[in-house]
Design brief:
Blueprint: H1 33-48, H2 54-57, E1 62-64, E2 73-75, H3 77-85, H4 89-100, E3 106-112, E4 116-121, H5 123-127, H6 129-136, E5 150-154, H7 166-184, E6 188-195, H8 200-216, H9 223-229, H10 242-252, H11 266-291, E7 298-301, H12 302-307, H13 310-320, E8 324-328, E9 344-348, E10 359-360, H14 370-383, E11 388-394, H15 398-412, E12 417-423, E13 426-430, E14 433-434, H16 447-454, H17 456-463, E15 472-475, H18 476-479, H19 487-508, H20 526-536, H21 538-548, H22 552-574, H23 586-610
Helix pairs in contact: 1-4, 3-4, 6-23, 7-21, 8-10, 8-11, 13-14, 14-15, 16-17, 19-22, 19-23, 20-22, 20-23, 21-22, 22-23
The chain binds one RNA strand of 77 nucleotides through strand 10, helix 14, helix 15, helix 19 and helix 21.
Length: 619
RNA sequence: GCACCCUUAGCUCAGAUGGAUAGAGCAACAGCCUUCUAAGCUGUGGGUCGGUGGUUCGAAUCCACCAGGGUGCGCCA
């Protein structure tokens, strides 16, 4: 089942990608207010401690305060530099307060707690973001953190043995959103799909398609008779192969069978059938991906790679490097398989690169293991010049990550980093009851069924409402609910409300409103500034999520943003004078509209990362 | 046996390279609203962050050990 095979087996969290180390700090994002204030703090700090080591300065952060009573932002500058400066944090903090108070952005600064410096900004510094957001549009929040790092995100990579099912879906959405996120954060991203079309599974699939072919040409064989002839038995009984059988029949008539319409020698039909079946399945999968809104740049075929000799070549190279030997592995302790017997194997010295045991590259029949081909595939990716490779995998491949990491390390002389992002199983619930997937019967919940039931946008959003490596329950009823507990609805609704206000505004005030040029000084109240503060956090949210490789953070941010907006809206429910649109206050209305428009921009921007289409109105 | 992952409010989950009094939704409780700015609003209670020890000015976060749960462990992909 390809790399997503995993998705059926429960498996809790495994491996969290370590945040990448930054060789050098990328240029500050000019629209990130927090980054700007950090520069201000650093400049002040440099005055106080002229010889502060760069690595200490790098640890200085300016963060949103949890509690508004502490001001708008806080910095740990005094605490992190205390040791190097050989001064008490309180003393440095006091000096910082002196330097920072009354600056262009900062209204007041005060020392607090163990050495924090709390900053209260001038409201106009926050307000000034609105025209910036409106001018930049959805580019607001984009950053240069990635600094053009070439990064390859490989995801889905399901075996082409049938239509995509729900198990594949999470990896597809997480991988796609992660790629979008990295792109927004300034990485040079390639989205890739690895077609696992070279293994025994595909051969089994071809047999199954061949059975449909025999049926199509009217073979007298029964399924039982046929199955008895199939090595490993007849798998893949799904009806989706019937069309493949018919196509074969139309193209080849009875030429792929014996004269009495029985099973011909595999040499006659296996390759032909395999090719046609894989193509047909990939066409289905591509259509599934399209419906899910996933568009990958590159599809790499394991078969083609092997046929081109890539696997042999890389094994040879590793051999030349002395990283391959013939050896005998120890049986796993405590749980030795019944049929275990010591056997010399071709092994890769993955332990030299951090793996637990050395890993076999050849099966006993002389063919390559999946791992051997996968080394070749990763070598191919390395040769394409990426700095970072990310494999989005089913969680049961957790144990696989360390060996592929080892391989990439060996191939690239440690110049390319491989990261695994593991996606946990998704349990589908309907009416509170689990929806069972019965694959053996050939009928299971396909991705297409799911998309028809709840729609692409709800699927994508919901898949991102949990950390990738945490199990999740996907409640079909809740995903369609129109209440606050459904984040998809709640966020979409906020956007629709923004659009609704803007539509109404266009009627109330005909002509170009030029919101980017609006005077926004009248936005002074708490709920307005709270909302603007949230908008101010969008760039740093993108950055942090990208560095942590955690696209789900975007979903949580949007939920919080929506909550801030709904709160503002709700005030107008009780008190009509607090509504956005006041025909007798064109100037104030325009300021509020700028806020509303900026909110809509950021919501759209976030949804775009998630691959979710914003709605203009709730229907 | 070994490796890795997980354990946060009654439930489902957030929690930023270690930061201040650990947050949200649901549920519970108390009010409000019956609207077209439809598909609720406001507030309250609720916690030994699995346990113990350690590092630190400071730990849900890092380290060690322990308990409970999960996944993987040669020729599956």
């Amino acid at each position: 089942m390809g790399r997503n095979r995993a998705a059926h087996h429960p498996r809790p969290n495994n491996h969290r990608p370590a945040p990448p180390t930054r060789a050098n700090t990328p240029p500050m994002n000019p629209t990130d207010l927090y980054a700007r204030l950090r520069e201000t703090v650093l400049a002040a700090l440099a005055q106080i401690i002229p010889d502060l080591p760069a690595e200490i300065a790098a640890r200085v952060e300016v963060t949103p305060t949890r509690d508004q009573a502490h001001g708008d932002m806080a910095t740990n500058a005094a605490m992190v530099s205390a040791k190097a400066a050989r001064q008490a944090p309180a003393k440095i903090a006091a000096a910082l307060v002196q330097h920072l108070t009354g600056g262009p952005d900062i209204d007041t600064a005060e020392a607090a707690g163990p050495g924090f410096v709390n900053l209260r900004l001038r409201p106009k510094s926050f307000r000034a973001l609105l025209p910036q957001i409106l001018t930049n549009g959805e580019a607001y929040g984009a950053s240069t953190t990635g600094a053009g790092t070439k990064i390859n995100v490989e995801y889905v990579s399901a075996n082409p043995t049938g239509p995509m099912h729900i198990g594949h879906c999470r990896g597809a959405v997480v991988g796609d959103a992660l790629a979008n996120l990295l792109q927004k954060a300034g990485y040079d991203v390639t989205k890739e799909y690895y077609i696992n079309d070279a293994g025994a599974q595909v051969t089994a699939l071809a047999w199954a398609a061949y059975w449909r072919y025999l049926q199509a040409i009217g073979s007298p064989m029964t399924e039982t008779e046929f199955a008895a002839e199939v090595p490993g038995g007849l798998q893949y009984k799904g009806e989706y192969l019937i069309a493949v059988g018919q196509t074969l029949a139309a193209q080849y008539q009875a030429k792929l069978a014996t004269p009495d319409l029985g099973i011909a020698s595999p040499e006659v039909w296996l390759d032909i059938t395999k090719d046609l079946t894989i193509d047909a399945m990939m066409a289905e999968i591509r259509e599934d991906l399209r419906l899910l809104g996933v568009q990958q740049d590159i599809f790499s075929s394991e078969r083609k790679l092997v046929a081109a000799g890539a696997a042999d070549a890389i094994i040879e190279k590793l051999h030349a490097d002395g990283l391959i030997y013939e050896g005998v592995l120890e049986p796993p302790k405590g749980k030795t398989p019944d049929d275990w017997e010591p056997r010399p194997q071709t092994l890769f010295r993955s332990t030299e690169f951090g793996d637990d045991v050395d890993r076999p590259l050849r099966k006993s029949d002389g063919s390559n293991t999946y791992f051997a081909n996968d080394i070749a595939y990763h070598a191919d990716k390395v040769s394409r010049g990426y700095d970072v490779l990310i494999d989005v995998l089913g969680a049961d491949h957790g144990g696989y990550v360390s060996r592929i990491k080892a391989a990439v390390k060996a191939i690239s002389a440690d110049s390319v980093k491989l990261e695994g992002v593991l996606c946990q199983i998704v349990h589908i619930l309907k009416g509170g009851q689990p929806v069972k997937m019965s694959k053996r019967a050939g009928s299971y919940v396909t991705l297409r069924d799911l998309l028809e039931e709840v729609g692409k946008d709800a699927v994508r959003f919901t898949m991102l409402t949990r950390k990738a490596d945490a199990q999740m329950e996907f409640d079909l009823d809740q995903v369609l609910a129109t209440t606050r507990e459904n984040p998809v609805f709640y966020v979409q609704y906020a956007h629709a409300r923004c659009r609704s206000v803007l539509r109404a505004a266009a009627e109330m005030f005909p002509g170009d409103l030029d919101l980017a040029g609006a005077t926004v000084d009248t936005l002074k109240g708490d709920p307005e500034l709270t909302l603007i503060r949230r908008l101010a956090q969008w760039p740093r949210t993108v950055e942090a999520a990208a560095i942590a490789r955690e696209p789900h953070r975007i979903a949580f941010f949007l939920y919080d943003l929506a909550a801030d907006f709904h709160m503002l809206w709700n005030r107008g429910k009780d008190d009509a004078t607090l509504r956005f649109l006041q025909s007798d206050q064109p100037s104030e209305t325009r300021a509020r509209l700028a806020l509303v428009a900026a909110t809509a921009v950021v919501i759209r921007s976030g949804l775009a990362v998630m691959g979710v289409a914003p709605v203009e109105e709730m229907r």
